[in-house]
Amino acid sequence: MIAVINQKGGVGKTTTTLNLSHALAQSDKKVLVIDLDPQAHLSAGYGVLRQEQQGIADVLLGELEVKDVIEEVRENVFIIPAGSRLGELEHLTKGGAKRGFLLKEALKNKIRKFDFVLVDCPPSSGILGMNALLASEEVLVPVSGDFFALQGLSRLMSIFQHIEETLKRKTKKWVVLTRFHERRKLAKEVKGKILSYFPDCVFQTAIRETVALAESPGFGQTIFEYQPKCNGANDYMELAADVIDNRLLS
Ligand SMILES: Nc1ncnc2c1ncn2[C@@H]1O[C@H](COP(=O)(O)OP(=O)(O)OP(=O)(O)O)[C@@H](O)[C@H]1O
Ligand SMILES: [Mg+2]
Q1: CA distance linking residue 160 with residue 173, whole number of Å
Q2: E strand intervals along 31-154
Q3: In the chain, ranges of CATH 3.40.50.300 domains
Q4: Could you tell me if the CB of 152 is within 6 A of ligand 1?
Q5: What is the CATH T-level fold of the domain 18-134, as seen in this structure?
Q6: Which ligand is nearest to the CA of 11?
Q7: Under a CB-based contact definition with an 8 Å cutoff, are residues 12 and 144 in contact?
Q8: Residue 4 Cα, ligand 2 centroid: separation in angstroms?
Q9: pLDDT score of 35
Q10: pLDDT score recorded for residue 172
Q11: In whole angstroms, what is the distance from residue 210 CA to residue 198 CA?
């Protein structure tokens, strides 16, 4: 299970979860995506957002089970939508330390049939993000190629360290460069810095800034449905190969 996480907003977490999951599915992998963001952009991107929707919110609140809320959205892709009540979870006060393990407990023995499980996290480091981290063996951090990209990364690293200490195990960390402008000097600088901060963690493929990637969720489509020949589609297909074959920059 992979938490797609970065507490910084707008770096490409949802775009990556949406299109990487569909790319993996097209490589014959069985994929589950979980929308853990009250904004529910992933559910919208896959075209399954509804009013008064049930989803992972109701599972975490102890009222439904995973099997009640899972939906098949594409061939080989299953989704657990956010659910209208997901925002309530960020304000959950009861449960003490157990509040962080609700997702892990809910998914126990229920996700074995999937080759990949991707969790789209909200842009915060509250209870929902904690639940994703405590349930995942791996994290994928999208980093956008702009001036503020590096801001907050050291805080994110200390959160990962805290999780590793709590669970007494290592978390596999991956980084993907997103919204990348190949010819921009700044993007190259960010790439160099990221590589020095995260040696042996950065995937080979950088996702280029592509207008169609921003447009497709508005139609409830992935990039492979909306514009399968654009740079963004090509990049996410290559990223899926990076994930499957562990192709990293060095
Ligand atoms: N490679 C790209 N090219 C062009 N636009 C992109 C690209 N990646 C993401 N975007 C756009 O940038 C915005 C932010 O992306 P996205 O929603 O994936 O980020 P996020 O990290 O999930 O944001 P949030 O923190 O709000 O959940 C969206 O409008 C999205 O369509
Ligand atoms: Mg998002």
Answers
A1: 9
A2: 31-35, 71-74, 77-80, 116-120, 138-144
A3: 18-134, 137-250
A4: no
A5: Rossmann fold (3.40.50)
A6: 1
A7: yes
A8: 9
A9: 98
A10: 95
A11: 25
List the residue whose alpha carbon is closest to atom 29 of ligand 1.
214
The token pair at 73 is: 């959205």
Q: What is the pLDDT of residues 9-39, one digit of tens each?
A: 999 999 999 999 999 999 999 999 999 999 9
| CATH class of the structural domain 137-250 | alpha beta
Pairing between β-strand 172-178 and β-strand 138-144 as defined by DSSP bridges: parallel
| pLDDT (0 to 100) of residue 190 | 82
> Whose C-alpha lies nearest to ligand 1, atom 31?
214
170, 145 contact by CB (below 8 A): no
9 in contact with ligand 1, CB cutoff 6 A: yes
Measured in angstroms, how far is the CA atom of residue 68 from the centroid of ligand 2? 24
Atom of ligand 1 nearest to the CA of 235: 1
Assessment of whether the complete model's pTM goes beyond 0.90: yes
pLDDT beneath 50: ranges in the chain: none
> Of all protein residues, whose CA lies closest to atom 16 belonging to ligand 1?
12
Kindly state the DSSP code that residue 228 receives in the 8-state scheme. Answer: T
